[in-house]
Design goal:
The protein is low in regular secondary structure. The chain contains one helix and 22 strands. The protein is rod-shaped.
Length: 671
């Protein structure tokens, strides 16, 4: 009926094809099915390289995602089948990496690499700042495990309902839908309590002739010998030569193997697999036969030596490598979760594997990431152990834990150096200088401060002090000598500090003159108008300078003797004559009667009235004139080239100051 239906449908399809004019072909038609996978379905499907990204999807993959080529990545490039930033492949350390080109923003690090958190490690296990290898006891799914600490190529098989990828991942040897399933008597797998595939064990049907068994009840024949179900004749207590027995109920093609000491014809008649002179022998580890509890010929089991790579095994202890995977001894590796080969601890140390993390066993410093092996244990590196280890860039310096490195020591970045300067080419720390645009070398601010002062022979030969507004640690750091709340500020004449252009504390320079013993640069810095050897001298009545409360040079005032005729005065007591003229000169009292009398050369001046005649007044000599210059019987105006110390000069024709114009009568300036 079904065949008839198919023919009718086929005929109808042919008629339709002819009717619409489609070409006929004997080849099967090509059908193209549109891929229904989506780039937004939350699963890795189609040609996606990671979930919903890469391949033909418009969405590119982010950093850390799986990729096949650079075009799969949103940024960076595809390296080791992971989208990684460019700094993840430059073989240099970076702040956003924990190891070189791994951890942080890069792909996870392998065993014994530095880490900050579990996600920095492929094993997802960060202990003591270093990634440790995945193991079958770390209570997390990592390595090749299909579930936590089970499945994969190294760990024990998983229990029911745990995740799996294939049958061998499960204790039940049954992986269904990605989970370990309960064993059944119809799954074509030897599992559960079965003694052979889907039979024996008390839960499944009995086993047939020559299937494996553990007891008589496992067999249809009711007879189990040498773990094999036997024919009924093999249990009658007689030597049945007709079925090939070589001894009572053993040997031959149908019965079980004979025990040691019983008769045999062939090696196969014996449980040991060794028949010598028609007698079965005990199994030995050198009989070139797989027998006894050996897992392969003359090796494995509790009695014989360990098996080599590729020989059969049941447990890790059957193997020289201590790695039994898929029933075969495998070569030791640095990721097999076993301490073997030349390793000093599991998967680390020795000449073949990477160094071990802190706390792992070691035999020498080279076995440790920290490069420090103490009492056969890798020890945390210290900044005082006289070794370059941990994150140090040189011996006991650099990194984020140890002191900064000195000039010429190795560095990875500016942060490793005392000078904050790491040469990008030589990768060594540079000297701090006062013109490197970096605050270093004890500078208070960038390239300034007392640290930038250079001395030779106890004398300052150059200095780069900090300007106002720059940071400072003390007054000595500042150009103005004033540091307030960590900043250089302009000096004041009342701040109790020697700063600005002051020569002493709040005196000298642009401030008022200084008292005795204060510093000075010029006479003007001193109240006494005498600067000697960099210090202001005290005023005296013999220093040839008008200072103190003197009214004239070394005379007048409270301390000095009265002034002679012609000397300046303020009050009568300043004068020997006890008369101070209205124009401020010591004279006899007759020198103020507004008449020319006595020996005066002009009205009330000259002669015994002293050098009191002004410009153009009559004189008989220079001693009559205020200008100390008498020319042609008249007092001449003082000049700066008349060879006379006058007009307020501090020395002959130099210093001092006066208003413009000549000195008139009575001492007043004219013009």
């Amino acid at each position: 009926m079904f065949g008839r239906f198919v023919k009718v449908v086929a005929h109808a399809w042919l008629v339709w094809v002819v009717a619409v004019g489609l070409p006929l072909s004997c080849s099967p038609p090509e059908f193209r099915f549109e891929d229904t996978k989506s780039c937004t379905d939350g699963t890795r499907s189609g040609d996606e390289t990671d979930v919903d990204c890469g391949g033909s999807c418009p969405q590119k993959c982010g950093l850390g995602k799986v990729c096949n080529e650079d075009a799969d990545c949103a940024e960076g490039g595809c390296h080791s089948r992971r989208c990684q930033a460019s700094h993840c492949v430059d073989n240099l350390p970076h702040e956003n990496e924990t190891g070189i080109d791994c951890g942080g923003a890069c792909e996870p690090c392998g065993p014994n690499q530095p880490c900050r958190e579990d996600s920095d490690c492929r094993s997802e296990t960060c202990v003591g700042g270093f990634c440790v290898a995945a193991s079958c006891q770390d209570e997390r799914q990592n390595g090749t495990e299909t579930d936590v600490d089970c499945g994969g190529s190294i760990c024990p098989p998983c229990q029911l309902e745990q995740k799996c990828s294939e049958d061998r991942d499960c204790v039940s040897a049954r992986c269904r839908g990605g989970k370990c399933d309960a064993p059944g008597c119809d799954d074509n797998i030897r599992n559960g309590k079965e003694t052979d595939v889907d039979c024996g064990g008390g839960t499944c049907p009995q086993c047939a002739y020559l299937q494996r068994c553990e007891r008589n009840e496992d067999c249809v024949s009711g007879y189990c010998l040498d773990s094999m179900c036997q024919a009924p004749e093999c249990s009658n207590g007689q030597l049945d030569e007709g079925n090939g027995e070589t001894d009572v109920d053993c040997g031959g093609p149908e019965c079980g193997a004979c025990a040691a000491g019983l008769k045999c014809a062939l090696d196969t008649d014996c449980g040991s697999g060794v028949c010598v002179e028609n007698i079965c022998q005990l199994p030995r580890c050198n009989d070139e036969t797989l027998n006894g509890k050996e897992t392969d010929v003359d090796c494995g089991g509790p009695a014989c030596s360990d098996c080599n790579v590729e020989q059969r095994c049941n447990f890790q202890n059957d193997c020289v490598s201590r790695v039994c995977a898929g029933g075969r001894c495998t070569a030791p590796s640095c990721a097999d979760g076993v301490r073997n080969g030349a390793e000093t601890d599991i998967d680390c140390g020795g000449e073949d594997c990477g160094p071990c993390a802190v706390g792992r066993a070691c035999s020498e410093d080279a076995d440790c990431v920290s490069e420090l092996c103490v009492s056969e244990v890798c020890t945390t590196p210290q900044c005082t152990d006289n070794m370059q280890n941990g994150r140090e860039s040189d011996i006991d310096c650099g990194g984020d834990e140890c002191p900064k490195c000195s000039p010429n020591q190795r560095c990875s970045s500016d942060a490793d150096c005392l000078s904050s300067r790491c040469d990008p080419e030589t990768k060594t720390c540079l000297e701090a200088t006062c013109n490197d645009a970096v605050q270093n070398g004890g500078e208070a601010d960038i390239d300034c401060g007392v640290a930038c002062t250079k001395t030779e022979g106890g004398q300052v030969v150059s200095a780069k002090l900090c300007a106002d507004g720059k940071a400072c640690g003390s007054d000595q750091d500042c150009e103005n000598g004033s540091c307030n709340d960590g900043l250089c500020v302009p000096g004041r004449c009342d701040d109790g500090k020697k700063n600005g252009n002051e020569t002493g504390v709040d005196c000298g320079g642009s401030c008022g003159p200084c008292g005795p013993d204060a510093g000075c640069n010029t006479h003007a810095d001193c109240q006494s108008r005498i600067c000697s050897a960099g210090k202001c001298a005290p005023s005296s009545c013999t220093d040839e300078v008008q200072n103190g409360d003197e009214s004239g040079v070394d005379c007048g005032g409270q301390e000095c003797p009265p002034c002679a005729i012609g000397r300046t005065c303020r009050v009568n007591e300043d004068c020997e004559t006890e008369f101070c003229s209205p124009n401020g000169y010591c004279t006899p009292e007759s020198c103020a009667d507004e008449e020319r009398n006595g020996d005066e050369t002009d009205v009330d001046c000259g002669g015994s009235c002293g050098p009191t005649c002004g410009y153009q007044q009559m004189c008989s000599g220079s001693g009559d004139c205020i200008s100390r210059h008498c020319a042609d019987g008249r007092c001449a105006a003082p000049t700066c080239d008349d060879g006379i110390r006058n007009q307020g000069e501090s020395d002959v024709d130099c210093g001092g100051s006066r208003p413009p114009g000549p000195l008139g009568a009575r001492g007043g300036w004219v013009g």
